[in-house]
Amino acid sequence: MKKHKLGGVGAAMITPFKSDFSCDYDTLGRMIDYVIDGGTDYIVALGTTAETPTLSHEERNEVFRYIRERVAGRTPIVLGAGGNDTVRLIEQIQAMDLEGVDALLSVTPYYNKPSQEGLYRHFKAVAEASPRPIILYNVPGRTGVNMSAETTCRLAADVENIIGIKEASGKIDQITQIIKNRPKDFLVLSGDDGMTVDVMRKGGDGVISVAVNAFPKRFSHVVYLASQGLFDRAYEAYEPLHEAVCALFEQGNPTGVKGALAIMGLIENNLRLPLVPATDLLMKKLEKLIREYELC
Hints:
The chain is an alpha/beta fold and 296 residues long. It has one domain (3-230): Aldolase class I (TIM Barrel), CATH 3.20.20.70. Helices cover 45% and strands 12% of the residues. The chain is built from twelve helices and eight strands. It has helices at residues 25-37, 57-71, 86-95, 116-129, 140-143, 149-158, 172-181, 196-201, 216-227, 231-248, 255-263, 280-292; strands at residues 8-12, 42-45, 77-80, 103-107, 134-138, 162-167, 187-190, 206-209. It has an eight-stranded parallel beta barrel, surrounded by six helices. The mean pLDDT is 97.
């Protein structure tokens, strides 16, 4: 596959729920159209933002099937596929229906806190067994382990089927080191919306974004400007979004973005436990920012 087609902005899709907490496929379909029409370059299905840990195996299959049919070839699709049991994860990947999937996004193993060598061997085994390319996902705030730049670059150099990383360590020096030492065409994608322009200015390739669910046209334009090397204009375009993007994450993800989307009338504000909706205080703050900066 052409790795560059997964640059730009990928939408980490939410899973809308009805008031009875069942999956709301009609709303999911409208959300897919909304982000694609807003300029999103590709769709990321069943990631963190989708509340995937609370979806049953059957629901995950149905959500992905629905997304694939609704996207209908309009953009590439990246599918979340991570776990902390290497052998079981490989079995799951090999059993998946991966028609229409351009790459898998695989998070660092969580809870069991592997060493750097353990991370290397885990991802090497997964990538060598996977029928689709792998994008690594480093998010130590959720997993309890940070994959070092050295380990990332070692995997990038040694394993052809590993094509990129979503870097959400929040460490710009670490991300810069990956960009400096990566093989040619290895994708470096920001995992933090607020760091996107900074990462791209260092030579990164784009972002897998939560905020693009709520503000697709505005956020996609920021990423487009950065992709053209127009960084001053990208910072200027991002400035009206900054406070709202920060607010999206004040009480966790997807709590904030679902609150914003509910304010905009696009979804019902329902999350599955252990996640709960945003507080009234945050909802008022989001409503004020959306109105003040004309974000809808």
